[in-house]
Design a protein that fits this description.
With 524 residues, the chain is mainly alpha-helical. Among the domains are: 22-144, Serine Threonine Protein Phosphatase 5, Tetratricopeptide repeat (Alpha Horseshoe), CATH 1.25.40; 464-524, no CATH class. 71% of the residues lie in helices and 1% in strands. It has 28 helices and two strands. It has helices spanning 2-17, 21-32, 36-39, 46-59, 72-84, 87-99, 103-115, 123-135, 139-165, 169-181, 185-197, 205-217, 221-232, 239-251, 256-272, 293-305, 309-321, 329-340, 345-357, 365-377, 381-393, 401-412, 417-429, 437-448, 453-463, 469-483, 487-497, 502-517; strands spanning 281-282, 288-289. Strands 1-2 form a two-stranded antiparallel sheet. β1 (281-282) and β2 (288-289) form a beta hairpin. α25 (453-463) runs antiparallel to α26 (469-483). The N and C termini lie far apart (135 Å).
Length: 524
């Protein structure tokens, strides 16, 4: 009988010796409450661990108040389930630990909520959990939180950019201001632009400058360039040096407009043959040097290589006039043409003038006219007026008053006072076009709205053509408005006053007030 018992005991021990050592080890650590070793095992063992844990959980007596959701064993189970990819169950097991303030659980649950794995996506709740984990020193949560904030700000910035590019400045301003106040460089720059040009927000140069500076100090190249332009246009001491420094900062980031601005500054210094102490440049060894033609050419060429057309135009000009580079008509023409073909108006005009004058290239009036037309169609007011005059006088082109009016009108519609008056004269005199005093006054009035004394005087004289009472009142009215701007008009008004009754003068003064307050729209 004793022999039988010994044999049976040996069989049982042999069976136990053949068990999976990983499972056996997991059960052992579970039974003694020490799970450090189990938690450190490779992720590839997650499934065997889970099976072992489930078995151990059934075998180990649970002390009241220490369920698997409140013991080290429960934490390991939650971690293992998370690692196995069973995110739905992982979320259920992890949440109690997150509620208890466990940083690892807060991080894991936040990750599931952020990505919508095993639970509905909830970025707000995820962000809250990351913050709680960060408060406990979890560096992974810190990184995640920073990435979330960056993505959130980027999404807001993209929305603001879209609104701005579409011309929805009201929405853009509402989106941009909070971002600017949070320190986003692009938003600060954009808010500066909106204040500079009065886009929805009040026009305010000082606010624009303040926002540009904030953005520039963060290294935003466009803002640094704006600061350079602002300083360059100033009259205070050291403004050139300050402008140069801002341009240099932007240029070092590859900002093409800043490069061209630096080139122009140095080119003017070289042209004047006066060394400007404000324009010295830093050397690689920490010293200072005077800029040279090599710097000018390099800045223009670098900008041109970025397809920045003003850089191409400046290079063409250097070749055309022989400054910093030898005179070379072919090179000048090539650079002008390259820029002109990309829509640069200045290049079109330079190219047209080269062909018109036959200087450095063969004279070609037909090609010159074509480039003038392109520049005019692009909206260059000077070219539009030039073409109008040519067609009016038949200068180098067949005389064509209708075409002249078309070009003058393009310039006049861009608020060019000279073109407005030219159209007024043409319609008033009826030369080359039908006589139309109403049309003439329309164009004069547009000039008057820009407080042009000549336009006001022409309007006054247009009413002097008739002798009726109403016409006399209008003559006085327009000279009264002009008198606020020029002494000569005051003399004309005073002379006219002697011919009028008190009632007429009062009526004219009331009409002048109404006309001016309506921005010259209610003047009849």
């Amino acid at each position: 009988m004793q022999l039988f018992l010994l044999v049976f005991l040996g069989m049982v021990l042999g069976a136990c010796a053949g068990a999976d050592p990983r499972t056996d080890n997991t059960k052992a650590v579970a039974e003694r409450g020490d799970h450090t070793g189990a938690a450190a095992e490779p992720m590839g063992n997650a499934q065997p661990k889970l099976e072992a844990m489930n078995q151990a959980k059934n075998e180990v007596q649970v002390v009241p108040g220490t369920t698997s959701a409140g013991t080290s064993f429960g934490e390991d189970e939650a971690k293992a389930v998370y690692a196995s990819g069973d995110y739905t169950r992982a979320a259920v097991l992890t949440r109690p630990f997150a509620d208890q303030g466990k940083a690892w659980a807060q991080f894991n649950l936040a990750t599931l909520l952020e990505e919508g794995k095993g639970v509905p996506k909830d970025e707000k709740q995820a962000e809250d959990l990351y913050r709680k984990a960060v408060a406990q020193g979890d560096k992974r949560a810190q990184v995640k939180l920073e990435l979330m904030n960056r993505a959130k700000h980027q999404a807001q910035e993209d929305e603001a950019k879209t609104a701005y590019e579409k011309g929805d400045y009201a929405r853009a301003a509402a989106l941009v201001r909070p971002l600017a106040e949070q320190g986003r460089a692009w938003a600060q720059f954009t808010l500066g632009v909106m204040h500079q040009y009065g886009k929805v927000v009040p026009q305010d140069d000082q606010k624009a400058l303040a926002w540009y500076r904030k953005s520039a100090e963060q290294g935003y190249a466009d803002a640094q360039y704006k600061m350079g332009l602002w300083e360059y246009s100033g009259n205070h001491r050291g403004h050139k040096e300050s402008a140069k420094n801002w341009f240099l900062k932007a240029a070092k980031q590859g900002h093409a407009p800043a490069m061209v601005s630096l080139g122009v500054m140095v080119e003017r210094m070289i042209e004047s043959k006066i060394t400007d102490g404000d324009l010295i440049l830093p050397t690689e060894k920490g010293g200072w040097r005077t800029p040279t033609c090599d710097d000018v050419v390099n800045w223009y060429l670098t900008a041109a290589k970025q397809n920045y057309t003003p850089g191409m135009v400046r290079l063409g000009k250097l070749f055309a006039v022989g400054r910093c580079l030898p005179v070379d008509g072919k090179e000048a023409e090539a650079w002008y043409r390259k820029a002109a073909e990309q829509g640069d108006v200045n290049a079109m005009i330079q190219l047209a003038e080269m062909y018109e004058e036959g200087k450095l290239v063969l004279k070609n009036s037909k090609e010159a006219l074509q480039w003038y037309h392109k520049a005019g169609e692009q909206g260059d007011v000077g070219t539009q007026k030039k073409l109008g005059t040519r067609y009016l006088n038949g200068d180098g082109v067949p005389k064509n008053p209708k075409e002249a009016v078309r070009w003058y009108q393009k310039a006049a519609e861009q608020q060019d006072v000279w073109a407005q008056n030219q159209l007024g004269l043409m319609y008033q005199n009826g030369k080359d076009v039908r006589k139309d005093i109403t049309e003439a006054r329309k164009w004069y009035r547009l000039g008057a709205a820009q407080e042009d004394v000549g336009s006001m005087a022409r309007l006054a004289e247009s009413y002097r053509l008739k002798k009726s009472e109403q016409d006399l009142v209008h003559v006085y009215m327009w000279y009264s408005l002009a008198a606020m701007l020029a002494d000569e008009a005051k003399k004309m008004r005073d002379q006219l006053e002697r011919q009028m009754t008190a009632a007429q003068i009062k009526k004219a003064q009331e009409l002048a007030e109404r006309c001016q307050s309506s921005n010259y729209k209610e003047c009849e």
